[in-house]
Design a protein that fits this description.
Elements lengths: L1 E7 L1 H5 L3 H10 L3 E8 L3 H7 L9 H8 L4 E8 L2 H9 L12 H5 L8 E3 L3 H11 L8
The chain binds adenosine-5'-diphosphate (ADP) and magnesium ion.
Adenosine-5'-diphosphate binds next to loops.
C-alpha cells in the first residue's frame, strides 16, 4: 500500500469534473482516504511548488493555483503514485496519451486539470503539506 497526493486544480473545479477525476481513480483501485476543498493563498501555492521556484513558469503557475478553489485528496493503493501519474497523462496535454485525464480535459501545459506526486519523497512532503494525521482515514 502506498499513499499519494492529488489535486484537482482550479481549472478542473471550474469545469465541474472533480467527480470525473475521482471516478477514474476509484475505478483503478485507488481509495480516497483524505479529501477537502481549499482556496490556496499565493504563498501556500509557492510553498507547495517550491521545487519549481527557479522555473520561468513559477509566477504564472502559483498565480493559477491560487486563482480559485482546488480539491485536495490523499489516495491510497497498490503502486498509488505511478497509478495516478499514469491516469493523469503527460504534463502537456498535447503529449498526453489517449484516455488520460489531461488528454481528455486539459486546455494547456499550465491549466492541466490535475496534480499527482511524482515519487515517494514528493508524496512524503506533499501529503502533510495539506493533511494532518486526523484528516486521513484508512
Ligand atoms: P507535472 O504536474 O506533470 O508533475 P511539473 O512538475 O513539471 O509537471 O510541473 C508542475 C506544473 O507546472 C504542471 O503540472 C503545470 O501546471 C505547470 N507547468 C509545467 N511546465 C510548464 C510550462 N512549460 N509552462 C507553464 N506551466 C508549466
Ligand atoms: Mg510534478
Amino acid at each position: 500500500m502506498e499513499r499519494t497526493l492529488s489535486i484537482v486544480k482550479p481549472d478542473g473545479v471550474k469545469k465541474n469534473i472533480i467527480g470525473e477525476v475521482i471516478k477514474r481513480f476509484e475505478k483503478n483501485g485507488l481509495k480516497v482516504v483524505g479529501l477537502k476543498l481549499a482556496n490556496l493563498s499565493k504563498k501556500e501555492a509557492e510553498g507547495f511548488y517550491a521545487v519549481h521556484k527557479s522555473r520561468p513558469f513559477f509566477e504564472s503557475l502559483t498565480g493559477f493555483m491560487s486563482s480559485g478553489p482546488v480539491a485536495l485528496m490523499v489516495l491510497s493503493g497498490d503502486n498509488a503514485i505511478k497509478k495516478v501519474r499514469d491516469l493523469m497523462g503527460a504534463t502537456d496535454p498535447k503529449n498526453a496519451a489517449p484516455g488520460t485525464i489531461r488528454k481528455d480535459f486539459a486546455d494547456s501545459i499550465e491549466a492541466n486539470i490535475v496534480h499527482g506526486s511524482d515519487g515517494p519523497d514528493t508524496a512524503a512532503f506533499e501529503i502533510p503539506y495539506f493533511f494532518n494525521a486526523l484528516e486521513i482515514f484508512e
